[in-house]
Amino acid sequence: MSPVVSGACQGYVSGGADDRGMTSTAIAASGLRKAFGDKIVLDGIDLDVPAGTVFSLLGPNGAGKTTAVNVLTTLIKADGGTVRVAGHDVATDARAVRAAIGVTGQFAAVDDLLTGEENLQLMVDLHHQRASEGKQVVTSLLERFELAESAQKMAATYSGGMRRKLDLAMTLVTRPQIIFLDEPTTGLDPRSRRTMWNIVRELVADGVTVFLTTQYLEEADQLADQIAVLDQGHLVAEGSPGELKRQVSGSHVRLQVSDIVTLEAAAGILTGSTADHATLTLRVPSDGKAKSLRTLLDRLDDHSIDVAEFSVHTPDLDDVFLALTGHPSTEVNAR
Amino acid sequence: MNTTSKPLADSRVMLRRNLKHIRRNPVTIFNGALMPVVIMLLFVYVLGNAFNVGEHYIEYATPGLILLAITYGLAGTAVSVNSDMTKGIINRFKVMNVSRGAVLNGHVAATMLGSSVAIAVIIGMAFALGFRSPANLPDWLGAVGIIAATAFAAAWLTVALGMAAKTPESAGLTVVPLILLPFLSSAIVPAAKMGQGVRQFAQYQPFTPIIESLRGLLAGTPSGGYAAAALAWCAGIALVGYLWSRATFTKRA
Questions:
Q1: Which of A32, A276, B192, B203 is packed most tightly, with the most Cβ within 10 A?
Q2: In CATH, what number is assigned to the domain containing residue A190?
């Protein structure tokens, strides 16, 4: 079972952002390789991220996501392959790449001993913006990220969610065209996670290209136009969220009925189904598409079978990993 | 912003940031300014009369205490440099195209400013406790020169030590030898009065010529030999610290 989708990104037409003076490809990597000692972390990665889209690199801990981000953002040098970001080569023109990008890492890179406002002002000063303009940038970012109330408090006193928001706000001071978010919601509570997702959507609406790494399929599903699944240094699958999920067997429909007679009647007419007598549920394999669901419901109707509850189950990251790599995402590879 | 002034402008921004850190971390202020004063009171009032140093003890001890005012402030710098390297903010600066040396320059400048506050406090205390100096203006300027060179060298070496440490906690420990060295020099008692072995070490370690040249200048009897040795040590230590810092910075960041 190794349904690898290849070339799913090719031929994708970028939606806008050309007016910002960018080529239609924001990030292009080919044959990217990186090893630390004899441990190969990235083993020939190809990426093609159209400008103005959200690209998600999905993978478990230790898959090489952060290393990929570090190479793409000029923080470390690749051992092999070429990378162009915003049209510039990261190896020979790092300065131009840095002028176009912003990075928010896995651990919030804020200055704990400065207040939220001072952290943003530090970015303004280092970017050598005009003082009046800078003040305005700081104020508007504090408001946009709902940090105005805590602006005068030291960042050390901020909650995890506030730190991430401040971190991202600091990244936005330089108005980057391409933003790298390395696991932006890891460790956040569900509410902060949703806030972060909304911020990412706003950025994309403004024409920014987002490169997002995550270990949550749901996050990639919610935000990404294209997903690449990284496992032990290889891209094992690429495609839109829907394409990826369809690669995975295990989609099914669950029927809840009210008594054992109905359960057996339903099991009798639905081929391939498995009945659970204890919970009075029937599991029916299905691709989850409207057409096949309608056929299924019509069939139940024809036999006058009354269904109390009906739900469609799509696979989560663990299913995807199991299907694509043959091992669960939680398995720590000690290689 | 043209390219020649960017490193300077970036260094200034970093210095402002580091000074805010110092103001908000009272422990570093305590170590840098108060500990030398406590030691001064201890040695001058409690122990000083027991030492026969051939002169008024406060006059003998002040040059060494000035050095302690420099070294006691260093732990904060080492921790702060290491935190920058280990807590991710350095990556932010790198991606923002911040000038290469600015982060390090900011730490060195902030450390020297912190040292000057501690030194001003200790010299003020010395005068309050009866320190008198026959030194003229050129002597004082010479003393300021030696002190500045020492603070500069100590700051670069500390930045290098802080960069080389694995964690902020261990970074604070790396400067302990620097804090102990003045005690094994002629700072508190003359090297000639120390035991075999320790005496030789005290005579040849860098702090002794620095302290002796300072002592000569403050007593109005400058010694060219000690001053030359002191400046040579400072230049050497500063150079080693600078090159080591730059190398570690390139490797780690």
A1: A32
A2: 3.40.50.300
Range of the domain at B78: 6-252
Q: Confirm if B175 and B161 have CB atoms less than 8 A apart.
A: yes
Kindly report, residue by residue over A134-161, the tens digit of the pLDDT. 899 999 999 988 899 999 999 999 988 8
Q: What are the structure tokens assigned to A22, written together?
A: 């960018």
Residues of B in contact with A73 (CB under 8 A): 95
pLDDT one-digit tens code per residue, A188-244: 888 888 988 999 999 999 999 999 999 888 888 889 999 999 988 889 888 888 887
- For residue B40, being part of any structural domain is answered with yes
- Assess whether A184 and A81 both reside in one domain: yes
Is there a domain that residue A115 lies in?
no
Which residues of chain B have a pLDDT value below 70?
1-5, 48-49, 52, 253
Residue contact B97–A123, C-beta within 8 A:
no
First-residue to last-residue Cα distance in chain B: 25
Q: Is residue B1 part of a domain?
A: no
Which residues are A256's β-sheet partners?
A281, A309
Are B88 and A74 inside 8 Å of each other by CB? no
Question: How are beta strands A101-104 and A178-182 bridged, if at all?
Answer: parallel
> Do A94 and A206 reside in the same domain of the chain?
yes
Banded model confidence at residue A169, pLDDT cuts 50, 70, 90: very high
The interface predicted TM-score of the complex, written ipTM, equals 0.83
> For residue B198, is it within any domain?
yes
DSSP letter string, B15-32? HHHHHHHHHH-HHHHIII
A102/A190 same-domain check? yes
CB–CB contact A103 B91 (8 Å): yes
Q: How many CA atoms lie within 13 A of A74 on its CB side?
A: 25
Q: Exposure pattern of A61-82 as b/e (b: 16+ CB <10 Å)?
A: eebbbbbbbbbbbbbeebeebe
* Same domain membership, residue A259 and residue A185: no
Query: Is the Cβ of B96 closer than 8 Å to some Cβ of chain A?
Result: yes
Is residue B228 within 8 angstroms of chain A, CB to CB? no
